[in-house]
Write a structure and sequence with these properties.
single chain, 232 residues, mainly alpha, three-stranded antiparallel β-sheet, 11 helices, 70% helix, 4% strand, elongated
Length: 232
């Protein structure tokens, strides 16, 4: 009776987005390593919800590049390779500096305030030791810059690259070097607030170079663990 009541209460409290967020944190914290199978029935049992809600959460994570759905096999935590990691950051280095330039020229005070809030949330997550959320919020900061630039097609491409980057960073990040980009977003914010397009472009270029240098692309993914151990 107690377990049933707890499950019902949890079901009433959980939404697709909240389930996706919890699974996302487990993936970005590497509690769910690449290759882990995400079984709908087991997830439904863990969260006390129906499979339809779990399926919606997995679809959202697939869109973010954290989950891959294989026909007739199911959903798995995505497994970005070293080659893909290099290609993703090469593509970001081609697109994001010019986007930062455009964003700086277009930024309004409301945009600057939103970017500052992104940084505050990111650092709060870092201070709390929530590395998964910090990685996610770092990506959101870059997405926000792309939105400010108001280049819809390029924003869509950058958003897809950033989504894939989140897992790449979590997987290949050299944890001891975690502060290598701690001030980069502040510097970018200052340039954008000053409407300094050239400065923002240069800072974004060096930021992505530094971020790429903080990845250890010799690492190999660890073995999957059970869903219940990772999520409860």
């Amino acid at each position: 009776m107690g377990m049933a009541a707890n499950s019902a209460s949890r079901s009433a409290a959980m939404t697709n987005d909240q389930i996706a967020e919890q699974i996302s944190h487990a993936i970005l914290d590497l509690r769910l390593p690449p290759g882990t199978k995400l079984t709908e029935d087991e997830l439904a049992s863990i969260y006390g919800v129906g499979r339809t809600m779990v399926r919606g959460a997995l679809q959202a994570l697939t869109h973010r590049g954290l989950v891959e759905t294989l026909r007739n096999r199911g959903a798995f935590v995505a497994q970005p390779t070293v080659r893909e990691a290099r290609e993703v950051f090469e593509a970001r280095a081609l697109l994001e500096p010019r986007t930062a330039h455009s964003a700086a020229l277009r930024a309004r005070p409301t945009d600057v305030r939103q970017l500052r809030q992104h940084i505050e949330r990111e650092h709060a997550a870092m201070d709390a030791g929530d590395s998964g959320r910090a990685v996610y919020l770092s990506g959101e900061f870059h997405r926000a810059i792309a939105r400010i630039a108001d280049q819809t097609t390029i924003e869509e491409v950058i958003s897809a690259l950033i989504a894939r980057s989140s897992l790449i960073i979590a997987l290949y990040w050299r944890r001891r070097d975690a502060l290598c980009e701690s001030h980069a977003h502040h510097a970018l914010l200052d340039a954008i607030a000053a409407n300094d397009g050239v400065g923002a472009e240069g800072l974004m270029t060096s930021h992505l170079v530094d971020l790429r240098s903080c990845l250890d692309l010799s690492d190999q993914p660890s073995s999957p663990r059970s869903l219940r151990d990772a999520l409860t």
